[in-house]
């Protein structure tokens, strides 16, 4: 029992010492400890750039979905035609139609896979561009406003609304996009 109490007492003393040391460091830092937190999802959702990029993704997705649906309809049409004609088809003709349907199924899978890959690649490209723009805004904001640390909301368990700078980042991003659009 004695060693356990000694360890507990040592831990308490070490904790007190660290607390006192840390409070001295923070006191010395003064205003250098300005911290901001932002929500990248909300920045994407609320900013003009995010809205434009989301629209771009939705447009491509809709186009690719239309291409896939066209191939699905071709296959359904072929299958329906086969069901109607099947009783009167010769064995050779039946085999030929089955191969056609199998080929259309393979083609549909290829078109679907290609569409998914293209949309995913586009989304990754858009995310990278958006992240680059946001990071530039955050770095500028951090330097201009004297922030020591700006964190992604996902990296923190608790955030006081007083340090949430999401709306400030959105307004800066919108201003930057607007001024960029005015340049000839």
Explain this structure.
By secondary structure, this protein is mainly alpha-helical. 79% of the residues lie in helices and 4% in strands. A two-stranded parallel ribbon has the order 1-2. Helix 2 crosses helix 3 (48-85), helix 2 packs across helix 5 (166-182) and helix 3 (48-85) runs antiparallel to helix 4. It is rod-shaped. The model is unreliable at 1-30 (pLDDT under 50).
Short description:
The protein has 184 residues and is mainly alpha-helical. It has helices spanning 2-29, 40-46, 48-85, 91-145, 166-182, and strands at residues 35-38, 149-152.
Topology:
Layout: H1 2-29, E1 35-38, H2 40-46, H3 48-85, H4 91-145, E2 149-152, H5 166-182
Helix pairs in contact: 2-3, 2-5, 3-4, 4-5
Element-by-element helix/strand order = HEHHHEH
Q: Return Rg in Å.
A: 30 Å
Which percent band covers the strand fraction? under 5%
CATH architecture designation of the largest domain: 2-Layer Sandwich
Shape label = rod-shaped
- Give the helix level as a range of percent: over 70%
**Based on helices, strands and strand pairing, what is the structural class?**
mainly alpha
Oligomer: single chain
CATH topology of the largest domain: Protein Binding, DinI Protein, Chain A
CATH H level of the largest domain: which superfamily?
A: Skp domain
Number of strands: 2
Tally of contiguous helical segments? 5
What is the makeup of the main sheet?
2 strands, parallel
